[in-house]
Design a protein that fits this description.
This protein has 571 residues and is of the alpha+beta class. The chain has helices at 2-10, 122-150, 152-195, 206-237, 249-292, 299-321, 324-377, 397-410, 415-425, 427-430, 470-486, 502-511, 529-534, 558-568; strands spanning 14-16, 23-25, 34-40, 46-51, 59-64, 70-74, 81-88, 91-97, 102-108, 117-119, 441-443, 449-451, 459-465, 491-497, 519-520, 541-545, 551-554.
């Protein structure tokens, strides 16, 4: 009676067999989890539970959703895994379920990645914490971007940069057209000198002179008309003096200097070239009028018109050209200053953006570290797989390795865990930059086992070589020199030989003066276990390890190895 009473008090499930002496524990099937949910902003009528990965179409339960958005789903789940509640096509909510759980959760139909409320599941409480941190990261980014887009300095200099670029390019175009016109003035003067060397044109050359003079005069006036139109438009359209921010006084001093240079260049154009061009325009108009009235071909009219052209050019050319050199110098200076101002404006904008970027980076790094700590604190929870890829492996190798190893120890047969474990244990991954170097333990020439991990706290060059490898032997003197230079500062060499003959290996060590003690080999040639672990397919092959045993560089030789050690030891 006492024995039965004790069993009843414990509440344990035992069975009494036909043989009273043989009491055994009965196997009880795990109780399937139940999901009690409420869907906010609900538009769905039914929910189905499925596995969240792979191609398994099987359902693990389904339930109707009432008008208030409530549902109770009795699942058939028998293992701890990642599932999804499917409400419609591509409308899924991820969750982790374990046998025996009763999970109460609130879901937002407008955002199925959100977890407004959950209880009854340690994994989903962890998932909620991670989701909230991820959401806060996005809110932080949105907030910083909004602050940047509304920053008054950023808005001012963005507008300034756009307008100044147009203004500057207009001036460049104006100077180009004026420069072309000045060249045409020179051409017009050469025509006058050729056809009227004494100020008079021979009757037999009237037609030729008239043709070339007309051609160059029209080119001059067209260039000036275009440049004048551009200049007037630019000055009317752009204002770079109003609403300036109080900062960047040196920048605005440069702007004012540029605007002054543009103005003085324009004055040269107006004072020296514009009056001459206007007189050319009147002569062109006179010729056009004569042509229109069929009077230009009359010799006296043509001769009179040509004489006026020659007289104008000869009387004004010196005045027109007196500031030519000054004009060209001002144009070059103006263009250089304009380019510099535009570059400065872009740099100011970049500086403002960088300030906000630095602000975001500081807060984002804090948030990111919280996330990493949260993942590491729950590294053996299958739910961590839902979030691990938020941290790309190439930049977070240590995090991935620690999480995956913990998951593999607890879930060695889980499909997703096995896939990630295969990546972590592949030679390419295990020996990538940033990874903790896989340990090696092999005999030295005297048969003593030497371990790579025993050198933690030292900077280590892991060197794969062989006595028969000429490039390896050629590199050995440099490795010896580096060992002698930095050994007292904490530098070690761990040499792994791919030899197959022990005596050849020992002779090469002595001949090359490889004085460090850490020489190992399993004498399996290219079948070396160490080489297989590190994915070594050619030698020499080296891996540089920091004091924590982390791989920080590969295949450093000669000067590259020297530079790396100089940097590490502060030389």
């Amino acid at each position: 009676m006492m024995a039965v009473a004790c069993l009843l008090m414990t509440g344990m499930s035992y069975s009494v067999m036909a043989n009273p002496a043989a009491l055994t524990v009965a196997k009880v099937a795990p109780k399937s989890p139940v999901i009690k949910g409420k869907v906010m902003n609900n538009t769905f009528s039914k929910v189905t539970l499925k596995l969240a990965y792979g191609n398994n179409p099987a359902s693990f339960g389904e339930a109707e959703i009432d008008k208030e958005g409530n549902f109770t789903l009795q699942s058939t789940v028998t293992s701890n895994d990642i599932y999804m509640l499917t409400f419609a096509e591509k409308q899924n909510f991820l969750l982790v379920l374990s046998p025996g759980e009763t999970v109460e959760l609130v879901i937002n139909a407008d955002n199925l990645r959100e977890i407004p409320s959950v209880s009854g599941s340690k994994s989903m409480s962890f998932a909620k914490d991670v989701t909230e941190l991820l959401t806060s990261s996005q809110l932080l980014l949105d907030s910083v971007n909004h602050a940047l887009q509304t920053d008054k300095n950023q808005l001012y200099f963005h507008g300034f940069s756009q307008n100044f670029s147009r203004f500057y390019q207009t001036n460049v175009d104006v100077y180009k057209r004026v420069g072309e016109a000045v060249q045409q003035i020179d051409s017009l003067k050469r025509v006058c000198d050729q056809y009227a060397p004494n100020g008079k044109i021979a009757p037999k050359t009237l037609n030729d002179f008239s043709y070339y003079a007309n051609k160059f005069m029209r080119a001059i006036t067209e260039d000036f008309s275009a440049s004048d139109m551009f200049t007037q438009g630019a000055y009317a359209m752009y204002d770079f003096k109003s609403d300036r921010p109080a900062s960047n006084t040196e920048f605005f001093r440069d702007v004012d200097q540029y605007l002054s240079k543009v103005q003085s260049t324009r004055q040269i154009m107006d004072n020296n070239y514009k009056p001459f061009v206007e007189r050319l325009s009147r002569l062109i108009a006179k010729r056009d009028s004569l042509v229109f009235h069929d009077a230009f071909d009359k010799k006296s009219n043509k001769q009179a018109w040509c004489a006026e052209v020659v007289a104008l050019v000869n009387s004004q050319y010196a005045k027109v050209q007196k500031d030519k050199q000054t004009f060209e110098q001002r144009v070059n200076e103006s263009n250089q200053e304009g380019r510099a101002i535009y570059t400065q404006s872009q740099n100011i904008i970049s500086g403002i953006v960088q300030q906000y970027q630095a602000m975001y980076n500081r807060e984002s790094d804090k948030n990111s570290q919280k996330l990493k700590n949260l993942l590491l604190d729950n590294k053996d929870d299958i739910a961590v797989l839902m979030f691990l890829d938020n941290f790309p492996r190439e930049k977070n190798a240590a995090l991935h390795n620690e999480v995956v190893m913990a998951l593999h120890e607890k879930y060695p047969d889980h499909q997703l865990v096995k896939e990630k474990y295969a990546i972590e244990t592949s030679p390419a991954t295990a020996t990538s930059i940033g990874a903790i170097a896989p340990d090696l333990a092999f005999p030295d020439p005297d048969g003593n086992i030497r371990k790579l991990s025993d050198l933690r706290g030292k900077v280590v060059l892991l060197d794969f070589w062989a006595s028969w490898c000429r490039p390896c032997r050629g590199e050995n003197p440099h490795v010896v020199a580096m060992y002698q230079k930095y050994h007292d500062k904490g530098f070690e060499v761990f040499s792994v030989s791919l030899d197959r003959d022990k005596e050849s290996w020992k002779r090469a060590i002595a001949a090359d003066g490889l004085v460090w003690p850490n020489h190992v080999s399993d004498l399996k040639y290219w079948s070396s276990e160490a080489a297989r672990t590190y994915g070594v397919s050619s030698i020499p092959s080296t891996f540089l390890l920091d004091q924590n045993g982390r791989i920080i560089a590969k295949n450093l030789r000669g000067e590259a190895l020297s530079n790396a050690l100089k940097q590490l030891f502060g030389e």
